[in-house]
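pinned: reference chain
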Amino acid sequence: LGDGLEVVEEKMIYGVETNTTFLECVPKSQQTSVRWMVQHHPAQHGKELKGEARFVHLERGILIHQLERGDAGLYSCLAEELSFSHPIARYSLHVIEQQHIATL
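pinned: its structure tokens
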């Protein structure tokens, strides 16, 4: 594919609707900036996560508040240093509906 994302293991993450989920991303260098991308459907291009109130960028990852079903998708953490970008982590986030938890 040429995007380099295939070299990082994709981890399955399950979160419960309306709860908070944390996705970890720790670059090896402190000079590295981190960028988060999300792809909600395989047929769509990924979009950068920025400026959204429920998504809090932290030093060691991203915190997603008040999970919604629409948050499900493939999340990629990209390290950017100089003019290079490479993936650090990939998460396939699945959101479990709140009503399914209530019936367990």
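why pinned: The chain has a mean pLDDT of 87. The beta strands are 10-16, 21-24, 33-39, 47-48, 55-58, 61-64, 73-81, 84-96.
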